[in-house]
Specification:
The chain is of the alpha+beta class and about 300 residues long. It has helices spanning about 20-25, 155-165, 175-180, 185-225, 255-285, 290-295, and strands at about 1-5, 5, 10-15, 15-20, 30-35, 40-50, 55-60, 80-90, 90-105, 110-115, 130, 135-145, 150-155, 225-230, 245-250. Helices cover about 30% and strands about 30% of the residues. Helix 4 (about 185-225) packs antiparallel against helix 5 (about 255-285) and helix 4 (about 185-225) crosses helix 6. It is elongated, with a radius of gyration of 28 Å. The chain starts with a strand and ends in a 9-residue tail after the last helix.
Length: about 300
């Protein structure tokens, strides 16, 4: 299955209907399917991020397309042999791996997961987990990379509910529930951490460009700056960001108006990007104290940032 920048697996439950993971097709309205030697286009008919499942309606479906029989996770027993099928690594079609059911788990948000030691590789997402009779009991969905043999399939019962127009409701994704269960960071924590990393990248960029303004200020301020408002910061040119913060001196030795205009533009660009990054970080839940520590690390702390 080719879904823009993502590749994954799926399986036919009717000649014109395919089940896959939501994270495989997320952000797409249609995808390209390959089944044997045939290619199809399918539209995203229904998707549920809460249970990480999606249904695809196939255009110009082959009425003789083989389909899989759906069972229930209730029949899964620890130690039972299972088979995972998928498009491993987005390149190796019809890859089959074998393992056992390690456990059947219920997340805090009532999503049933089948834990298995059958290898689930990138690209396998959305493929079927079959019992020994060839009946689908789960949809291969995720692995926990810090352990070995920790693969998880979403119970096929949730796909049946989605097909019947009654998608199960969950307040968080299955992967987020797993992280919480093993003591990992929550989705909010992960988002907050990513927001802090993005903000730090912008502050680092601002510091590099600010150093260039520092050098220019040291060379020309004695000739061109009559007075500058104190900003209680490491960079006197921050005064350019205040209304009437800098009073220009008159010099016959240098083009002070041109230099000051250029420096103001460079300073304004830094402020615009700092303010934009700060707002984005706050929306991602980054704490004000964390933002301040990042600015202090790069000597860019100032009360004037929004």
């Amino acid at each position: 299955m080719d879904a823009g920048n993502s590749r994954g697996s799926g399986f036919f439950v009717r000649p014109d209907l395919v089940v896959t993971n939501n994270h495989v097709i997320e952000g797409q309205s249609s995808v390209t399917l390959q089944a044997g030697g045939n290619k199809y286009t399918a539209r995203v008919m229904s998707a549920s991020p809460a249970i990480d499942l999606a249904l695809l309606q196939v255009y110009n479906a082959n009425p003789r397309q083989p389909t899989l029989r759906l069972g229930t996770a209730a029949s899964a027993r620890p130690g039972e042999e299972v088979i995972a099928i998928g498009y491993a690594l987005g390149a190796l079609s019809n890859t089959v791996t074998r393992g056992i059911v390690s456990a059947v788990r219920e997340t805090q948000n009532n999503v049933t997961l089948i834990q298995t030691d059958a290898a689930i590789n990138p690209g396998n997402s959305g493929g079927p987990l079959l019992d020994r009779s060839g009946t689908v009991i789960g949809i291969n969905s995720m692995i926990i990379s810090k352990g070995q043999g920790l693969g998880f399939a979403i119970a096929v019962d949730h796909a049946v509910s989605l097909m019947n127009g009654r998608p199960d409701v969950s307040t968080t994704t299955p992967m987020a529930s797993l992280r919480q269960a093993i003591g990992g960071p929550s989705e909010a924590d992960t988002t907050r951490e990513k927001g802090a990393e993005d903000y730090a990248q912008v502050v680092e960029w601002a510091a590099r460009n600010g150093n260039q303004i520092d050098a220019s200020w040291q060379r020309n301020a004695k000739l061109c700056v009559a007075s500058a408002t104190s900003t209680s910061s490491d960079h006197p040119w921050f005064a350019l960001l205040l209304p009437n913060g800098v009073k220009m001196a008159v010099s016959n030795l240098y083009d002070c108006p041109g230099w000051l205009d250029t420096t103001k533009q460079n300073a304004a660009e830094i402020k615009a990007k700092m303010d934009e990054a700060g707002e984005a970080a706050r929306r991602q839940g980054v704490y004000p104290g964390t933002l301040r520590e990042i600015r202090q690390k790069y000597r860019m702390d100032w009360s004037g940032w929004n």
